[in-house]
Amino acid sequence: MALPLVTEECEAVIRAFSGLGGLGVDEKALVSALGKWRRQPEKRAQLRKSFVGFFTADGSFERCEDDYIRYLKNEFARFKNIMVLWAMHPWERDARWVHHVLHKPLPLDIIVEIACTRSSEELLGARKAYHALFHHSLEEDVAYHVRENYSNLLVRLVSAYRYEGNRINKEMATSEAEALYSAIKTPGVKKLVENEEVIRILTTRSKPHLRVTFKHYKEKYGKSIEEHLGDELCLRETVQCLDSPPKYFSKVINKALKDGADKNTKDALTRVIVSRADVDMKEIKEAYHQQYGAELEDVISKNTLGSYRDALLSLAGQ
Amino acid sequence: MSTISVAVSVPSPAEDCEQLRKAFQGWGTNEGLIISILAHRSAAQRRQIRDAYAQAHSEDLLKALDKELTRDFEKAVLLWILDPPERDAVLANEALKKWSPGNRALIEIAVTRTADEMFAVRRAYQGRFKRSLEEDVAAHTNGDFRKLLVPLVSSYRYEGPEVNASLAKSEAKILHEKINEKAYGHEEIIRILTTRSKAQLFATFNDYNNGFGHPINKDLKSDPKDDFLFALRAIMRCIICPERYLEKVIRLAINKMGTDECALTRVITTRAEVNMKHIKEIYYKRNSVRLDHALKKDTTGDYEDFLVALIGQDA
């Protein structure tokens, strides 16, 4: 059977319905199609025949795929989500994100991201908001709901109130770089993520101190600690977030815009742009350019649609 | 309730500074005058005096006192003048510098202060020592103690009254299980004690008592020399009734061969404006002696006068 001829008009509507990839939906194009196809049910029939993911032939008509309707719910909601999150107090945003991670199966590195890229006062604020919203402390819920061996690391990360000044003890940074190397390279009884020294250093030292530590690590051992950590979940993200949030965020954005990204990975785009718009958006764009040789705004433009795209570009733009 | 007595109308900070200056002048120091002023000013007033002194004489009042006073009296006065969060930060730092498993000052501070007070302590600690409190606790402790103390000083407990009854029951069971296995440093024990709200823990300890026929503390007395068990019991007692715990600290400090001035100074200067009245009442009930009488018997000189002024001489 020959595939249905997809007219240009149809293709435009399919694209607007997020049928050709991209995040969000093109509200304007959809509304304009409504107008253009008034009293032309045959055009809509043609759409249904051409739009393979959304509709399937069922006897004498084409019916909707429930999966696609669910998918559309998410895509239409991207604009709503970004606007609500934008309006929300940053503390509440962070508290709600952590709560989501704990109560739905969401990746734990979101907790690492929040704990390590916010300032000490912002993290305290998130903990205050968590009290108010959920009547538990943030660390109590992380401790209770994260049952695998990441629990200790995560509880300590969210409980940190790091010193934010520039005073650094160079000898200590040096010796702690060595301690980290030794922990990584010496196979122990417990997993690396449960290693007390690793946890102590990563969850209590100030960020400036840790950056010096990581620098010394690379100079002494030839590879960055990140490379040596390889696939160590949570630990790798911890080091990345503490060392350079812009680099980390540019990676997250890149993953979100890749083909075949899953729902959570795609949702990260909203989270990153909204939470960093007023913080280090400029640095993230620079990091993105350095890492991927493209301008972030161009990539966003190409891979997102409609009001969602406009919102992202407004937040990420100058 | 506070036990210090502050007159309804006090002299201005500038006048107080002048009097203090007079107390320093010449040979010797008029400690009595110092006590009569400083022991009768609230934290806010002491802050004003400190600021006024710095302005008038380009010197921190603490430095001036350091030059004039000595030993236990000096230590008590210097602690007293600090803002409560800074005071706790200094005490925490001191406890860490000479930390040993038997040192429970850190536990006392971390558990008897409110969540917000503890955060103010952490802020003051950073301001003064240019490191975070938890970083120093982690660096100066090890093993099970580190696993217990770092979360303890980092916690930001929910302070509401809500209690999840089934959770209290199940966590009482978990505690009982781990204690029975003698796994005192188990991460579940630490998780429960260092993250749950005080109201929740209160309910959990009650359930323990109801479910197993005796208080949880009793099951932690298997080895009287085990400092870790002692630490766990201290945490629980500070949660159940901080005033009773503090009364015991004071009582032991006084009864020791020679007095433990460190502990005495710490508890009195940090609690005089908070709940010293309640502590005194418990002391009297427990020992049939008024605390100020006990202090007069056991301490001497200006140190004695200062402590007695802080705790008040009413019954």
From TrEMBL, chain A:
SMART domains: ANX (SM00335). It comes from Phoenix dactylifera (Date palm). It holds the Pfam family Annexin. GO terms for cellular component: cytoplasm; plasma membrane. Gene3D superfamilies: Annexin (1.10.220.10). GO terms for molecular function: calcium ion binding; calcium-dependent phospholipid binding; phosphatidylserine binding. One of its GO terms (biological process) is response to salt stress. SUPFAM superfamilies: Annexin (SSF47874). Keywords: Annexin, Calcium, Calcium/phospholipid-binding, Metal-binding, Repeat. This is Annexin D4-like. The keyword Amino-acid biosynthesis does not apply. InterPro entries: Annexin, Annexin_repeat, Annexin_sf.
From TrEMBL, chain B:
PROSITE patterns: ANNEXIN_1 (PS00223), ANNEXIN_2 (PS51897). SMART domains: ANX. This is Annexin. Keywords: Annexin, Calcium, Calcium/phospholipid-binding, Metal-binding, Repeat. It comes from Phoenix dactylifera (Date palm). The lineage of its organism: Eukaryota, Viridiplantae, Streptophyta, Embryophyta, Tracheophyta. The gene is LOC103701753. One of its GO terms (biological process) is response to cold. GO terms for molecular function: calcium ion binding; calcium-dependent phospholipid binding; phosphatidylserine binding. A pair of annexin repeats may form one binding site for calcium and phospholipid. Ca(2+) 3 binds at D298.
